[in-house]
Specification:
The protein is mainly alpha-helical and 296 residues long. The chain has two domains: 3-200, Alpha-lytic protease prodomain-like; 207-282, Cation efflux protein, cytoplasmic domain (Alpha-Beta Plaits). The chain is 68% helix and 10% strand. The protein has helices at residues 3-28, 31-57, 72-100, 108-136, 139-168, 173-200, 207-220, 253-270, and strands spanning 226-235, 238-247, 274-282. The protein has a three-stranded mixed sheet with strand order 1-2-3, with helices on one face. Helix 1 runs antiparallel to helix 2, helix 1 (3-28) packs antiparallel against helix 4 (108-136) and helix 3 packs antiparallel against helix 6. The longest helix has 30 residues, at 139-168. The chain is elongated and about 85 Å long.
């Protein structure tokens, strides 16, 4: 299944869990279950937005976006993080009201059963989405999967709180658990926003990808061939590396271009999704890229 297919499935599952968890809150009156239902609503909005961004990111390059639309996925991750912040604030507000004016809970057993059924759906989907997101290097899919995992842990925390209310009779446990849930999803929201900002700021590739690049270049190095000014970045599912390759000044253009092609192909074979750009320079020529300061 393609990335977009998983996100479409995520929308369907989010609708189902909203129905289940809203029913759980309606039957029990638990503010903890209300917080769980609110996070499921965030899942729905986040999945729909992620689907739109993944579709946009897959569009081919055009005159206005000659490097493609890959970074659109980072907008999805950041947007979902902001939604999580909003949901957490709503949960805290509702929990504070319930803490000040406690109310008895009803039909807790049915509430727990419906909540856990929704969580089982989320957990199964999150596992499949995380596996696909890592394989395809889709930050939008991985962000949605992480959020679903957070939703699962949220539901477990809420259920533990409700069991505590049942066994102790302490009604204040319900809003306290809801506030703890809010703090937990705030942490996940911050993580998503930070990753989105890193991507938009052209963060370098991870250590594993960089090690693969160094390994490939080591196979081509020679006393008459060297590489420098190697820089990497990631844009959505696409990865990029730029560098200078120095070689003897007496080589013909055809020979130099053939070697560059071999290096580019080796790099792209070693690192999936990589696009390599190599500038050819004579061995005795240096490029001082950092000599001039950009204007402020």
């Amino acid at each position: 299944m393609q990335v977009s297919g998983y996100l479409k499935l995520s929308v369907v599952v989010a609708l189902a869990t909203i129905v289940l968890k809203t029913g759980a809150w309606w039957l029990s009156g638990s503010v903890g279950l209300l917080s769980d239902a609110l996070e499921s609503l965030v899942n729905l909005i986040g999945a729909a937005f992620a689907l739109a961004m993944v579709t946009w990111a897959a569009m081919p390059a055009d005159d206005e976006h000659p490097y493609g639309h890959y970074k659109a996925e980072y907008l999805s991750s950041g947007f979902e993080g902001v939604l999580i912040f909003a949901a957490a604030l709503a949960i805290v507000w509702a929990a504070a009201q319930r803490f000040l004016t406690p109310q008895p809970l009803e039909q807790i057993g049915w509430g727990i059963a419906l909540s856990m059924l929704g969580s089982a759906l989320n957990g199964a989907l999150a596992w499949a989405m995380m596996k696909k997101g890592r394989a395809s290097r889709s930050i939008a899919l991985e962000a949605d999967a992480r959020h679903l995992f957070t939703d699962v842990w949220t539901s477990i925390g809420v259920v533990v709180g409700l069991v505590g209310v049942l066994t102790t009779g302490w009604q204040w446990l319900d809003p306290v658990i809801a506030i703890a849930v809010a703090l937990n999803i705030l942490r996940e929201g911050w993580s998503l926003v930070r990753r989105s900002v890193d991507g938009l700021m052209d963060r370098a590739l991870d250590d594993e990808a960089r090690a693969q690049i160094d390994k490939v270049l080591a196979g081509f190095r020679h006393p008459t061939i060297r590489f420098d000014h190697i820089s990497t970045r990631r844009a959505g599912q696409r990865r990029f590396v730029d560098m200078h390759m120095h070689m003897p000044a007496g080589w013909t253009l055809g020979r130099a271009a053939a070697l560059r092609t071999a290096v580019e192909q080796a790099l792209m074979s070693a690192v999936p999704g990589l696009r390599a750009t190599i500038q050819l320079l004579p061995m005795d020529v240096e490029a001082y890229l950092d000599a001039a300061q950009d204007p402020l």
